[in-house]
Design a protein that fits this description.
32% helix; 272 residues; TIM Barrel; binds manganese (II) ion; binds phosphoenolpyruvate; globular; alpha/beta; two-stranded antiparallel ribbon
Length: 272
């Protein structure tokens, strides 16, 4: 494959030739970067009853990693901004009661410590991919980081963002393709499927795909998940709610439990 990395781009630690093997991230017997891994849950942490109910239903299906944002970096200041610290307390309860590993977003350096107390994986959202002070601090964090591609970022820029974290000493970085902005207006963003094999050809880091934010449409989650797996994704990040129309954020792209079960079946049940 022709290299995508231009020679002026100072990639070092993310490059495949630095490590002989792909990066694997171990959570006891659950491993990211090995077989297909699914992270699922609602866009936002909602009230305790709703969040726990969804988590329990997903845990029963064999899910190991639960996503939900307590701090929500929304496009509009008038939209739901997340439950913030209260949301973290709810996630702590989810973790305790279900054993699920928690994936949740860190939106600025001021909340790294409190998010890291609860999260098993800290998510850096698309809007923050270029926030270099946040990336530098996360380089000193002892938790894995799920780094989302910015909506207008080239792959070199995603790699350089990861390089900031690796350079700080944190080698547990997961990259995430979540759609980029194009002229197409029938999906929210455009899922860059070709990025998956290109990233794998360049870097040893695991690559996840988020078909929920990439498409903004729940009817596209199953086909785009299957396409991502066919292209070599190490994992999927999927928005799921047991009453998707009532989701406090991103309802249009959130699938219900039944569709999630169908997706698992069509992927030969990666949770089984
Ligand atoms: C999210 O995963 O909840 C999210 C906000 O995604 P993104 O940063 O990709 O927009
Ligand atoms: Mn969302």
């Amino acid at each position: 494959m022709r290299s995508l990395v231009n020679e002026d781009c100072q990639l070092q630690l993310v490059r495949k030739n630095v490590l002989k093997e792909k990066t694997k991230i171990y959570f006891g017997s659950d491993i990211i970067g090995d077989k297909l891994c699914i992270i699922a849950g609602p866009c936002s942490v909602e009230d305790e009853t709703t969040t726990l109910r969804i988590a329990e239903k997903l845990a029963k299906l064999g899910l190991r990693f639960f996503r939900a944002g307590a701090f929500k970096p929304r496009c509009s200041p008038y939209s739901f901004q997340g439950l913030c610290e209260k949301g973290l307390t709810i996630l702590e309860k989810v973790k305790k009661e279900t054993g699920l590993k928690i994936v949740t977003e860190v939106i600025d350096i001021g909340v790294i410590d409190i998010v890291a107390e609860v999260a098993d994986i800290l998510q850096v959202g698309a809007k923050n991919m270029g926030n270099t002070s946040l990336l530098k601090k996360l380089g000193c964090c002892n938790k894995p980081i799920l780094l989302k591609r910015g909506m207008a970022a080239q792959l070199d820029e995603l790699f350089l963002a990861a390089e900031y974290i690796l350079l700080g000493g944190n080698s547990n970085v997961i990259l995430c393709e979540r759609g980029i902005r194009t002229f197409n207006n029938y999906t929210r963003f455009t899922l860059d499927i070709a990025a998956i094999p290109m990233i794998k050809d360049t870097s040893h880091l695991p690559i996840f795909v988020d078909p929920s934010h990439a498409t903004g449409r729940r009817d596209l989650i199953i086909p785009m998940s299957k396409a991502s797996v066919a292209a070599g994704a190490d994992g999927l990040l999927i928005e799921v709610h047991d009453e998707p129309d009532k989701s406090l954020s991103d309802a249009d792209q959130t699938i219900g439990i039944k569709a999630f079960v169908t997706l698992l079946r069509e992927l030969d049940n990666p949770l089984g």
